[in-house]
Structure formats: structure tokens, C-alpha cells
Design goal:
Elements (H helix, E strand, L loop, with lengths): L3 E9 L9 E7 L3 E9 L3 H20 L4 H11 L11 E9 L3 E7 L5 E4 L2 E2 L5 E5 L2 E9 L5 E5 L1 H4 L13 H12 L5 H15 L8 E9 L3 E6 L8 H10 L3 E5 L1 H11 L4 E2 L12 E3 L2 E5 L2 H12 L4 H6 L3 H11 L2 E6 L14 H4 L1 H14 L3 E6 L1
């Protein structure tokens, strides 16, 4: 079974605190995803340090195969002790899901995990044991595409306490709300934001505690194949065209020459979109059997800029031009394969042109590195 774990989280800091006492750490390996939500004692700077240390230590050790006993022992001996309370304390939830779909959760003093399957809350089987004086709850299970796992800090279940809701939101009511949201089929990012927005409303925009929701959504991987540039040897034209035809998932062709080669080999025509012209971005086209055809180096360079930009990314991706469409496809894909032709376009080797225009290979490499930093699995094949 091939699965992908979409992970995202959203947080609110306690009212009038700059730093959150909750911290999330997500680590991906070739074999698994490890996600940790830690909630440090108190609020503000001290709680932030406790939560950050706890989450980072646990994620790193679990990723490297340490046992739960070793991990908790290390956390216990590492956290700085609060002088007022004489405690080194941070609650945590550990979630690990392997590529084969084996799931594992360990909880210490955090609200119980919400597990949704087929749109309904699904109750896991739990076992308890004591490690280093801490009562740990553990569960092991098999995940399926469509499953949604949500873990929260206690700020979520306490939302509205003493105000809109006398006793707070309560776990059962949060679970019902999560069920409703899951049945609207949002991605992990949207679901986490919806849940935290509801908490903010219950707190009347003045959170009484740090509040975090971490969402993991299990789905089948989304694949994307991107052909960039013609192959060095013309004899490989037919081979590249056949590879693109046989690839599963979404497909993009970058470069006019590359598009012409594929269109010729397939006996089809490229239709250029003249309705959504942008003065700063070359137009894009459509080819039956391919999702998007763009110009080459200019579009790729601007796409790299868009992917690296932190601010205004949603606004950028909503525009109707080649850069926005290509960036959105990259961000919505999990496994990305580049078919990179090594033929040299003399127009791009002019020393008077900016470096990012002159070196197609470098631009593609930087895009690949940026996507890997965002958790994508990227493969580069050269021809």
C-alpha cells in the first residue's frame, strides 16, 4: 500500500504572550513520518523552551530508532527545572506512521488523539505503562487512505471555559466538530486552521491558554512529472515522449522546444492560452495528455522565486498565469520527477544574461532542493 501523510498545524498563543508554550516538530524519513506536539508547563518563554526541547529531542530520537524508554529518559534528564515549581515538565503526543501504514501513538498528559475513519470518530485500543514516573498511553494500529488524526493541546478542549462555555469545549464536543469538518474533505492545513479559528471564537479572541491543533491526513500520494528541456541526443526524443505518456499522475512540459518535440511525437497540437495573458510571465498552453505546457527558463526562474517566497504565497498561487499554476501543482504534489534534457539552448548561455537565466540545470536543481525542504520526494533524471 502506497500512502502519503499530509501534516499541518495551527496555533494560538495565550493572550498577551508573544511566544507559544506549545511546539510541533515533524520529521520525515524514507520510511516514516514522525510528528510530536509538546505543551510546556505554564506559558511564555519558559514554556516555549520546555516544549521546543521536548518536541525536538523526541522527534530526533524516534526518527533514529530510539525506544520510548530511552527517549523519555533523555527528555527527563535534559529539560531545565523550573525554580518556582521545582519541575521540568512538558506534556507530549508522539505520532509515527510508516510507509506501510503502521501507526503508533504515545501520549503523556495531552488530550486523547482524535482518529477519524470514514467520516466517523474511531476509538483506538490503548495500553498504559509507567516510564520514568510518567504514565504513558500507547496505541498501535493500521492506517488507511482517508484516515485523519488530530492531536491537540489542552487549550483546545478548554476553549471558552468560564466564558462562552462554562466548562470549556470538552473532548466529546471537539470530536463532533472535527467529524463535521472532516466530512467537508479539507486538506490538513485547512482543517487545522478551521479548528483553531473555532477556538479563537470561543475564547473571544483572548485565548486563556496556548492552543494548538496538529493534523495528519492519510491519502494516496500525488505524483507529478515535469519534462524540462530537450534531450541531448535527438534519438531520445521518442523515449522521452513515451516516458511522459506512461507516467501516472499530473504532467507538465517546460520549454517551447520540449513541448514541440512531445507534440510532434504524439501527433498532437499545443493550444496557447490567450485569455490569461500576464505581462510579466510568458503564456502557457495545453496539450492533450498533459496538464500544463509552459515556456522554459523564465517561467522556471519565477516559479523558484514563488516557491521560496514566504509572504503572499496564497495570493501568488491564485493568479491565473504559468508561474501560479506550476507553483500550485508543485505544492499539491508529493512525489515529483524531473525529466531534464541536457541539450544546450544557445540563447541561455549569453554571459550578459543574469545567472539564473543562463543556467537551466541550476534553476531546476534549486527548485528540487526547495521542494525537498517542503517535504516533497524529488527525483531528477537527465537525458
Amino acid at each position: 500500500m502506497s500512502i502519503y501523510i499530509d501534516t499541518e498545524w495551527a496555533s494560538l498563543s495565550k493572550y498577551e504572550e508573544e511566544l507559544s508554550g506549545d511546539h510541533v516538530e515533524v520529521v520525515r524519513t524514507d520510511d516514516a513520518v514522525v510528528a510530536v506536539l509538546a505543551d510546556g508547563l505554564g506559558s511564555g518563554v519558559k514554556a516555549n523552551i520546555l516544549a521546543t526541547l521536548t518536541a525536538k529531542i523526541i522527534a530526533t530520537m524516534v526518527k533514529n530508532g530510539a525506544t520510548l524508554e530511552e527517549t523519555i529518559e533523555t527528555v527527563s534528564h535534559t529539560l531545565p527545572v523550573c525554580q518556582k515549581r521545582n519541575l521540568a515538565y512538558s506534556t507530549f503526543t508522539i505520532i509515527k506512521i510508516t510507509r506501510e501504514g503502521r501507526g503508533y501513538v504515545a501520549e503523556f498528559d495531552n488530550p486523547t488523539l482524535f482518529f477519524v475513519r470514514s467520516g466517523k470518530l474511531f476509538h483506538l485500543d490503548w495500553e498504559e505503562r509507567t516510564i520514568e514516573g510518567r504514565k504513558i498511553r500507547e496505541s498501535r494500529f493500521q492506517v488507511e487512505p482517508g484516515d485523519v488524526l488530530v492531536t491537540v493541546s489542552d487549550g483546545v478542549v478548554h476553549a471558552g471555559i468560564g466564558g462562552v462555555l462554562n466548562l470549556g469545549w470538552q473532548w466529546e464536543e471537539v470530536g463532533k466538530y472535527i467529524e463535521k469538518l472532516v466530512n467537508l474533505h479539507p486538506d490538513a492545513e485547512t482543517l487545522s486552521k478551521w479548528l483553531i479559528t473555532a477556538c479563537s471564537q470561543l475564547y473571544t479572541a483572548r485565548p486563556g491558554d496556548d492552543t494548538t491543533a496538529l493534523v495528519l491526513k492519510v491519502r494516496t500520494p500525488r505524483t507529478l512529472t515535469v519534462a524540462v528541456g530537450p534531450p541531448k541526443n535527438k534519438e531520445d526524443d521518442a523515449k522521452i515522449a513515451q516516458m511522459i505518456r506512461e507516467e501516472a499522475g499530473s504532467k507538465v512540459i517546460c520549454g517551447g522546444t520540449t513541448g514541440s518535440i512531445i507534440a510532434r511525437e504524439w501527433g498532437r497540437d499545443i493550444e496557447v492560452d490567450l485569455k490569461n495573458l500576464d505581462p510579466e510571465v510568458p503564456p502557457y498552453g495545453r496539450l492533450r495528455g498533459v496538464d500544463l505546457v509552459t515556456e522554459g527558463i523564465i517561467t522556471l526562474s519565477k516559479t523558484l522565486e514563488a516557491l521560496k517566497a514566504e509572504e503572499g504565497k496564497n495570493k501568488r498561487f491564485e493568479q491565473k498565469n504559468a508561474v501560479a499554476l506550476l507553483s500550485k501543482m508543485f505544492m499539491e504534489s508529493d512525489n515529483i520527477r524531473f525529466l531534464v534534457g541536457k541539450a544546450i539552448n544557445p540563447a541561455h548561455q549569453n554571459p550578459d544574461l543574469p545567472l539564473n537565466l543562463a543556467l537551466k540545470m541550476q534553476v531546476v536543481k534549486e527548485i528540487a532542493e526547495t521542494l525537498e525542504q517542503k517535504g516533497k520526494k524529488v527525483e531528477l533524471l537527465y537525458f
